[in-house]
Design a protein that fits this description.
It contains 7 helices and 18 strands. By secondary structure, the chain is an alpha/beta fold. Strand 8, helix 3 and strand 9 form a beta-alpha-beta unit. Bound molecules: flavin-adenine dinucleotide (FAD) and FE2/S2 (inorganic) cluster. The site of flavin-adenine dinucleotide has 21 residues, from strand 5, strand 6 and helix 2.
Length: about 280
């Protein structure tokens, strides 16, 4: 194994430098790590919460000086324990793992929902230097759950870009769901790449739209992960291991897993559960 892979796989203890409250259920944890400075947008790390669990998170910030962050929704035991961590507390990390987004030039559309916006943030910060036009569609159930509004606004402010926010209850932006907005855009304009991350039903709908309008597509998938190195099989979808072949998966790959994508995933015992 190369020295780089050895270093990536070794558990590193990092100190939380700052905790930012993003919404009533989402917090960002900022820390310093040299290996994360080299991560591609879309790659993830395994985070060990001592005495509780080790779970995967996309990187929400990637900077050349190693200032890094994860943005965490509180959904269960481990994320609840993480949310109780404060500035100065430590967590264990390994990674970055997996295949991130492939950067594309030209006319780009990005579609994100809920915490799916997390890996799309470092991606957008790279794409603003490459794209001729950027359309950013983001959605959530309510205004409270719309993440990174200011950061997106600031990132897009200096380029040829448009941001459209949707909420299901109409409490911010347009009332409705983000995929309806996306469909309207795809019907009118040819995009050089569609990037998506969010609830799997949303990414599935975006995949079908990308197929219908013959446009290239990349999405970041979530599956249960344990080893994150392609060894344990807990993250499989068809013949793909999401931790190694993904988490960013292309249309070509998704065509091979149509029976599972948007329908079910496997629990840690291998049993099918609805997504
Ligand atoms: C590549 C990847 C990137 C992710 N990025 C983010 C992110 O940026 N922000 C964020 O809030 N969440 C992210 N998640 C989801 C996050 O890992 C789960 O919310 C977390 O593991 C839940 O743990 P829990 O103990 O709090 O909840 P539990 O009650 O144990 O589980 C709640 C849900 O999380 C899923 N989950 C539990 N353990 C794992 C595991 N080891 N691997 C994957 N899913 C698990 C369960 O299937 C269930 O659907 C990501 C997942 C993956 C696979
Ligand atoms: S998490 Fe073990 S093979 Fe992917």
């Amino acid at each position: 194994m190369s020295a780089y892979l050895n270093a990536v796989n070794r558990l590193r203890i990092v100190k939380i430098q700052e905790v930012k409250v993003e919404s009533p259920t989402v917090k960002t944890f900022i820390f310093q790590d040299k290996l994360c400075a080299k991560a591609e947008p879309g790659q993830f790390i395994m985070v060990w919460i001592p005495g509780v669990d080790e779970i995967p998170f996309s990187l929400s910030t990637i900077t050349p000086n190693g200032l890094t962050s994860i943005t965490v929704a509180q959904v269960g035991e481990a994320t609840k324990a993480l949310h109780q961590r404060k500035r100065g507390n430590v967590i264990g990390i390994r990674g970055p793992y997996g295949k991130g987004f492939t950067l594309t030039e030209g006319n780009i559309i990005i579609v994100g929902g809920g915490t799916g916006l997390v890996p799309l943030m470092p991606l957008t910060e790279k794409l603003v230097k490459l794209s001729t036009k950027l359309t950013f569609l983001l959605g959530a159930k309510t205004k409270d759950e719309l993440l990174f509004l200011d950061r997106i606004d600031q990132t897009l402010s200096k380029v040829n870009a448009e941001m459209v926010a949707t909420t299901e209850d109409g409490s911010y932006g347009l009332k409705g769901i983000v995929t309806d907005q996306a469909e309207q855009k795809l019907a009118k304009e040819k995009f050089d790449m569609i990037y998506a991350c969010g609830p799997e039903q949303m990414m599935h709908k975006m995949f079908l739209l990308a197929e219908q309008y013959h446009m290239p597509f990349q999405a970041s998938l979530e599956r249960n992960m344990r080893c994150a190195m392609g060894l344990c099989g807990s993250c499989v979808i068809g013949k793909l291991r999401v931790c190694k072949d993904g988490p960013v998966i292309t249309s070509e790959q998704l065509r091979t897993v149509k029976k599972e994508f948007g329908k079910f995933k496997r629990d840690f015992q291998g049993k099918k559960i609805a997504v």
